Amino acid sequence: KMAGDSRFPDVDTDGSEKSEEMEIVVNVGGVRQVFYGDNLNQYPETRLAELVNCLSGGYDSIFSLCDDYDPGKREFYFDRDPDAFKCIIDVYYFGEIHMKKGICPICFKNEMEFWKVDLKFLDDCCKAHLSEKREELEEIARRVQLILDDLGVDASESRWKRCQKCIWKFLEKPESSYPARVIAVLSFLFILISSVVMCVGTIPDLQVVDAEGNRMEHPTLDSIETACIGWFTMEYVLRLISSPNKLHFALSFMNIVDVLAILPFYVSLTLTHLGAKLMELSNVQQAVQALRIMRIARIFKLARHSSGLQTLTYALKRSFKELGLLLMYLAVGIFVFSALGYTMEQSHPETLFKSIPQSFWWAIITMTTVGYGDIYPKTTLGKLNAAISFLCGVIAIALPIHPIINNFVRYYNKQRVLETAAKHELELMELNSAEGKAAGSRSELEDLSREGKESPFYSSRIKVSHSDTFIHLLSEEKHYRTRLQSCK
Question: What is the CATH number of the domain that holds 400?
């Protein structure tokens, strides 16, 4: 009976109009689009293709696919994002989909799922953008989860586990408390003091002469060095004991740097007291001196407390391709110009270019615009070759600099955005939790009211606010967005 309703279009004897000739109107967020069945039926599993054959199924079939329907105009209404819809319908005409600039990739993915269009139709460039956005949300979720884990206290854990977690948070997360920030500052100062002592200890006027006439560091500087090493050792041992994953901790790059900064002190101390009995004293002193040079590794400990150094490391890591191009350009230029320089300078009786391998050094300092002047051309052609070489060197060095700077700026801005987003999510969670408690208290008051008084306090309902950057990884519930909630 529903199929024969006069408000519906005429149907044939099979109860459905010929889908190839059928014309439907779709209104998405106030934007009307006209479609024909032959276009939509190219992808029968999509929502728009299902609209073609839903009229014979009655109201239940129609409203399972759309939000509203006008039988007179044969117009289907959807409360979705019209900008995203304009991109999605390209699949029916071009067989692929491109996202417009400014549309949130996660929201666009949700729109594609609503219209039942497979993600395989999304162009590769847009898939990369979607993957990047998904990684950002996973990183935000990971940061929020770490903060929640730090705030949460599991009563089932043993006292040692709770103490271990407290020590780890105290040493590894300066933002967790004021004492943790003080410890981080102290650690930073010890690194600076140790580095300064290492440099000052090499000044001859501050060194002392031992009984054998050899110069050695001043005892005061030696005592300061011992105190710094004691702090580094205690810090490393406590972090190792409190680490939740000790194997990952031991193999971490920064922790390996910590070991390299501490180990030379104890090895040199052992060689000084015990090595003299096993080998000659001169060999012991040479070994100790070589180990002391390894103390420069402690300067890399500053990266643990400096987000700028961490960002620089990541930017260089992401710029391996550009750095490889730089080295390739320089290698080719060094080989070509050193060979030309050697050939052109052979006619001069006082030439400084004795061989092509020796000319490599001249090509390196020329192309990098250092120019020590220890080797220089004396012929006119040699000088012309040198001028061309340093001009090519400037160009070769300048080409990869811009991508490297872009990587640095992009990663730095991304980290700031992720930190802000994580704090925003935590604030929303706290707000929702507080409103949930208020709603629970209000429910108790309503139960206690026997007369059923109607007042603004009792009749109002708290509206829980949701973030437009809601992270699905933090909740098992599905949150569907309307077009008004879509991230533009």
Answer: 1.10.287.70
